[in-house]
Write a structure and sequence with these properties.
Strand content of chain B: under 5%
Strand content of chain A: 25-35%
Shape of chain A: globular
Helix content of chain A: 25-40%
Number of helices of chain B: 2
CATH superfamily of the largest domain in chain A: ApbE-like domains
Helix content of chain B: 55-70%
Oligomer: heterodimer
Largest sheet of chain A: 7 strands, antiparallel
Chain lengths: ~325, ~170
């Protein structure tokens, strides 16, 4: 999934911390091998090669669970979250982390057909829970939700490795490139404190409290590039149009109990744009912060009670 | 009606003597009595024919007039039919509105009854409050009350040091 991993432990001695780090990093490595689309040998890459074949084939357990979670997110967000945007990303020239060079557009018709591809019953995923086998109608990218799921499963490993996290005598903060989970004891009295950095000002414009939960951000601060014809685009595509969405926004942060769903909601809320994100986030009852193109930070009522400090109100 | 028969007295006068009639006059009289003039027959026939032709003409004119009249009246008849249909629909709507109004009136009557009950309850509560106030005023209020400790949320007046930062998926701060 191409993100640096960092683990902060509180109330844990050095040997246990080292062992915990080994277990967590091994878990993440296994998930990377299953869910990454940048590794030629990854299970997801093999599955994407079979896209369009209606016959279900067995896959690794983590990949099966990740595809099932992505399917739930697709249904829950009414299609705003769609792992099939891979075709449109490649059409616009997206190559993952390396966006320093202009993209080379792929064949538009082929990629649009890939995005809209479904099986005759209208689903993009067929799965058999007994045999843990799946069939996908189009190639998928599990980048965002995959990282959230990796954090979710890594927290389970952390809880088993450090029992003190559950009873509050120890704590852990696990970061994976801007998405993070925190549980248990914080270094300072009170909850963990997480800064929200503005892609406009390149500094923290708010600090939020996090106790036993996750914070995920979707932003145009990274994975933004220019197409061959000079058009500025980013990786947060609206599945309904196949084009970059979120007009008027540069960043959306969502806090919640689960990192995978926080990731899903941050991305789908971003696509609402500056005009629609407020009503949508409030209707969903989410703790969400968003930064407009002019650098102004806005938030929902649920987010306000978690905000320890805000530059706008300082 | 009754009829009266009058009996005439028997005639006693002697039978008249037979008169001799010359034969020549007796033969010519029947031919004159049975002959009809031809021009009368022709006149009657022509008259009847003219009458029949006139009758046919009048009938034809009448039929044409009736047809034109019916054609002229057709749009008006259609409009009348449409109007009748509209009136029927409006009547049905009025009936429905009347039923809705009756329902609303019944609901309002129920609500009014409930409001009346609430007002009674409020009046009772007001009496109880007045009684409690009277009792409370007789109590001695302590000048200092010990309250249980509560956990308060830390208020930061300046930016606190954060444990981590989020800025974009895939980008560390």
């Amino acid at each position: 999934m191409g993100s640096p991993l960092r683990l902060t432990l509180v109330g844990v001695d050095e040997p246990r911390a080292a062992a915990t780090w080994t277990r967590v990093s091994d878990t993440i490595e296994d998930l990377e091998q299953a869910l990454s689309r940048f590794r030629p040998t990854a299970d997801l890459v093999t599955l994407n090669g079979r896209a369009g074949d209606p016959a279900c084939a067995p896959v690794q357990a983590a990949l099966y669970d990740a595809l099932a979670a992505a399917d739930r997110a697709w249904r829950r967000t009414a299609g705003a979250f769609d792992p099939r945007v891979l075709g449109d990303l490649e059409r616009l020239g997206y190559r993952g982390a390396d966006t320093s060079r202009p993209g080379e557009a792929s064949e538009p018709g082929k990629m649009l057909a890939s995005r809209a591809a479904v099986f005759p019953d209208g689903c993009w995923l067929h799965r058999d829970p007994r045999s843990r086998s799946v069939a996908i109608a189009a190639p998928v990218d599990l980048g965002g939700i995959g990282k959230g799921l990796a954090l979710r499963w890594a927290v389970a490993v952390l809880g088993a490795a450090v029992p003190g996290i559950a009873d509050g005598t120890a704590g852990a903060l696990l970061e994976a490139g801007g998405d993070l989970v925190a549980h248990g004891l914080a270094p300072q009295p009170g909850p963990w404190l997480i800064g929200i950095e503005s892609p406009v000002a390149n500094e923290e414009i708010a600090v939020v409290e996090l106790a036993d939960g996750a914070v995920c951000t979707s932003s145009t601060g990274v994975h933004a590039w220019s197409t061959a014809d000079g058009r500025a685009v980013h990786h947060l595509l609206d599945p309904r149009t196949g084009e970059p969405g979120g007009g008027g926004l540069v960043s959306v942060t969502v806090a919640g109990p689960d990192p995978a769903w926080a990731e899903v909601w941050s991305k789908s809320l971003f696509l609402e744009g500056a005009r629609g994100i407020g009503p949508r986030a409030r209707a969903l009852g989410l703790a969400a912060w968003w930064i407009r193109e002019d650098g102004v930070l806005e938030m929902t009522p649920a987010a306000r009670v978690r905000t320890a400090w805000s530059a706008a109100e300082a | 009606m009754t009829e009266r028969v009058l009996r005439l007295p028997p005639t006693t006068a002697p039978a008249p003597a037979l008169l001799a009639v010359p034969e020549a006059r007796a033969e010519a009289r029947p031919a004159v009595a049975t002959r009809r003039p031809v021009h009368v027959v022709i006149t009657v026939g022509v008259t009847a024919g003219l009458y029949a032709i006139s009758l046919a003409g009048v009938t034809s004119l009448q039929a044409g007039t009736d047809a034109r009249l019916a054609a002229d009246r057709a749009p008006a008849a259609a409009a009348v039919a449409e109007l009748r249909g509209t009136h029927d629909a409006e009547e049905a709507q009025l009936t429905q509105l009347e039923a809705s109004y009756a329902d609303a009136a019944a609901s309002y009557a129920q609500i009014a009854a409930a409001i009346g009950a609430h007002e009674k309850s409020l009046a009772g509560l007001g009496k109880q409050v007045a009684a409690v106030e009277g009792s409370a005023s007789a109590l001695r209020v302590p000048t200092l009350a010990s309250l249980p400790s509560v956990s308060s949320r830390t208020v930061y007046v300046s930016r606190p040091a954060s444990n981590a930062c989020t800025t974009a998926s895939g980008k560390p701060c």
